[in-house]
Model the fold of this input.
Amino acid sequence: MFDGEKPVRAYRIGLGLSPVGNKVRQGDRRTPEGDFYVFTRNDKSAFYLSLGISYPNEIHAERGLRDGLITKDQYLAIKQALKVKSRPPQNTKLGGDIYIHGKGAGSDWTWGCVALDDPDMRELFNAIRVGTPVRIEP
Done:
């Protein structure tokens, strides 16, 4: 977590079952890389608490359109959602439902999410609001 330019605290995390490389398509078990924002907070998550991440972002959408994974209409719907900072379409061949959530960071076990230990997730959940920027880097 960052406060301006200064790191406040580092968290131990778990990623997708295929933790190396950027997410390309639904079911690849990779965690997407890039710049996103939190589009929802869920205090009733099956994974303790969760923060929805705005995947796919514009870069993923452009690649998906170019590679024939999504249609032009899906691409435009993604761009529109990003423009108004709402939930991008989650049901395309790019995949979706990427969250930062609890239930443990001891290994890379998710289908593409970012997992934290529950106490860390509680701290992050209490500090983060909808619209907060998120960067996922390799």
User: Anything to note?
Assistant: DSSP finds three helices and eight strands in the chain. The CA atoms of residues 6 and 132 lie 16 Å apart.
